[in-house]
């Protein structure tokens, strides 16, 4: 059965409960360059052991414990997700003195004790350490430093794993989340990658935050997630369409077998081409075939390999009555997706032919990507119109390139004066001749 926090909510905290929670609120030590801080706390006071109302975890009562204050701590972000909810449980005796502390880390509950077995206190206050970017709690910095390698990867290269965190507690909020939403969050976080510090010199007092009941925090989160996501979608442009050529882009032209009428009846895909198309589809990219040839040939090849299932439209020269670089081919692709030509700069064309794919895209302001994979076709531009914006050498390079282009789009959106290439791609923009 799926976890349902709403069915486990105990009595609402009284004003005196909230006052006590604020009075005893722990301090959190963050890394010096932590980019994300919590903004709200949901409080529950438990008078018996049982399931947490805000997490799929069991809260225990050891001998002498009379009540537990649960702090459900909300962040809009961690470095790999849109939003973060971590927990601290203060265990109190009959006189409301703290006699134990538990806290959450990566979906599990752990007792918080110092190396000598004592409570983790600083100046009489419970003080816990938060992992950089990830926010899991520890009683000291030592376990965090021991995880330095993994945390550094999480805050740098592994930000590409970011997404909207799907949680059963907020299923109504996530009903309309799309692959594009996940991708926008991923790009937002990739642009906020950082090298974490491990000195934990920043002390954050949880008592300074708004303390409300867990049901009120739950309601706030249900409103807040769509707000944050809407802001991300406004701030982070995404590529609106990926236009793909076929020959020597998806299909190895050297392997083509034709019938007596000149139609291709069989051909091999380039290694990695199917995996690339599948990866783009998972990421929510809208894909259109823009290719020169006969309708029957592409039905035989791409349909036979199952590639056509991923296209929202197929713009084929035989049906259009013209070949690339004719503007009609590219404009038909945009029109098929309902994309205005003024948004051409937020679409890409990927192909093997400088004089057709690259030239045609450049003349309409579409981002041109040359796949320099095969020995066929000319390799040196005849004029400036044939210089590609980017060059790749195999289909498998395309998803990473598109991610870096979108990251650059996000940076320029926040700073329109910025003129930059995607990170690490300046060398690819230099044409190999």
From TrEMBL:
Which superkingdom? Bacteria
**KW Methyltransferase (keyword) present:** no
Q: Which UniProt keywords apply?
A: Hydrolase, Magnesium
Q: Which GO terms describe its molecular function?
A: hydrolase activity
**This protein's record includes keyword Transport:** no
Q: Which Pfam families match?
A: Hydrolase (PF00702)
Q: Which residues form the signal peptide?
A: none
Q: Where are the transmembrane segments?
A: none
Checking InterPro entries in the record gives: HAD-like_hydrolase, HAD-like_sf, HAD_sf
SUPFAM superfamilies per the UniProt record, alphabetical: HAD-like
Which PANTHER family does the UniProt entry name for this protein?
A: N-ACYLNEURAMINATE-9-PHOSPHATASE (PTHR46470)
Q: In its UniProt entry, what is this protein called? A: HAD family hydrolase
């Amino acid at each position: 059965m799926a976890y349902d926090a709403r069915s486990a909510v105990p009595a609402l905290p009284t004003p005196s409960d909230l006052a006590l929670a604020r009075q005893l609120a722990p301090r959190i030590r963050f890394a010096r360059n932590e980019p994300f801080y919590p903004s709200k706390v949901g409080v529950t006071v438990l008078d018996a052991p049982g399931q947490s109302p805000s997490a799929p975890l069991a809260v225990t009562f050891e001998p002498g414990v009379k009540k537990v204050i649960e702090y459900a701590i909300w962040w809009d972000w961690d470095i790999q997700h849109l939003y973060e909810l971590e927990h601290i449980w203060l265990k109190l005796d009959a006189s409301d003195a703290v006699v134990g502390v538990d806290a959450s880390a990566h979906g599990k509950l752990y007792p918080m004790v110092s190396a000598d077995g004592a409570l983790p206190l600083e100046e009489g206050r419970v003080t816990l350490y938060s992992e950089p970017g990830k926010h899991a709690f520890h009683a000291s910095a030592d376990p965090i430093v021991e995880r330095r390698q993994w945390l550094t990867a999480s805050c740098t290269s592994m930000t590409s794993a970011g997404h909207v965190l799907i949680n059963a507690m907020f299923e109504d909020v996530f009903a309309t989340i799309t692959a594009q939403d996940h991708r926008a969050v991923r790009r937002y976080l990739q642009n906020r990658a950082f090298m974490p510090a491990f000195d934990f010199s920043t002390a954050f007092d949880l008592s300074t935050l708004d303390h409300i009941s867990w049901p009120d925090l739950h309601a706030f989160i249900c409103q807040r997630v769509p707000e944050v996501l809407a802001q991300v979608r406004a701030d982070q442009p995404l590529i609106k369409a990926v236009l793909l050529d076929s020959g020597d882009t998806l299909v190895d032209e050297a392997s083509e077998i034709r019938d007596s009428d000149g139609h291709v009846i069989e051909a091999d895909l380039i290694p990695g081409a199917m995996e690339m198309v599948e990866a783009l589809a998972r990421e929510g990219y809208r894909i259109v075939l823009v290719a020169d040839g006969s309708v029957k040939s592409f039905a035989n090849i791409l349909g036979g390999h199952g590639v056509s299932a991923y296209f929202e439209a197929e713009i084929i020269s035989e049906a259009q009555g013209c070949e690339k670089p004719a503007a009609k081919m590219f404009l038909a692709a945009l029109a098929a997706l309902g994309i205005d030509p003024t948004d051409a700069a937020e679409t890409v064309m990927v192909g093997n032919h400088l004089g057709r794919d690259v030239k045609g895209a450049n003349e309409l302001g579409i981002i041109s990507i040359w796949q320099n994979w095969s020995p066929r076709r000319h390799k040196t531009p005849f004029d400036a119109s044939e210089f590609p914006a980017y060059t790749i050498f195999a289909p498998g390079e395309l998803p990473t390139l598109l991610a870096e282009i979108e990251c650059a789009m996000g940076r320029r959106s926040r700073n329109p004066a910025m003129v930059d290439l995607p990170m690490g791609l300046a060398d690819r923009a230099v044409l190999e001749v």
